[in-house]
Amino acid sequence: MWNEKMMLVRFAVVGIGNTLVDFVVFFFLASIGVPYVFSQVCSYSAGMMNSYVWNRTWTFQVRKKASVQEFLQFVFINLVSLSTTIVLLYLLRQSAGMPLFSSKAVATVAGMAVNFAGSRFWVFERGRR
Questions:
Q1: Low-confidence residues of the chain, pLDDT below 70?
Q2: Rounded to an integer, what distance in angstroms lies between the CA atom of residue 76 and that of residue 19?
Q3: DSSP string, 14-81
Q4: pTM (2 decimals)?
């Protein structure tokens, strides 16, 4: 049980770092006029690469050598998470008229939930055994 709690705490810490990378890149790009959907793709990609390294080695403590299959699964889960954030960001901004920062925060939380579940139970599970 302690291991599971530590895993969740570590995922949250890595997530905070990823979110900071994501937000800094996103708002920098948006501030120079890059459309917010493209800004989201770029910022999410930067956070995703940070996430792979830290979650693999520190959060889930994968012992096996990295594989192409594992990385592709990670990318797939992150594409699902990215899609979740883009759809929510669009719906909250365009349909609900929510401010950009609030829309981004809500979309980010939803994306993080998708990402943790996929990483924990699919991407990194075999490497921990």
A1: 1-2, 126-129
A2: 19
A3: HHHHHHHHHHHHHHHHHHTT--HHHHHHHHHHHHHHHHHHHIIIIIS---SPP-HHHHHHHHHHHHHH
A4: 0.70
Q: Are 74 and 52 in contact (CB under 8 A)?
A: yes
Name the DSSP letter for residue 124. S
- C-alpha to C-alpha distances, 85 to 18, 32, 63, 102, nearest whole angstrom: 14, 21, 31, 12
Q: Among all chains, which residue has been given the structure tokens 């979740």?
A: 84
Residue with tokens 């999410």: 44
Tokens of residue 100, six digits: 């950009």
> Do 115 and 81 form a contact (C-beta atoms < 8 A)?
yes
Hey, is 99 helix, strand or coil?
A: coil
Question: What's the pLDDT score for residue 48?
Answer: 85
CB count in 10 Å sphere of residue 50: 16
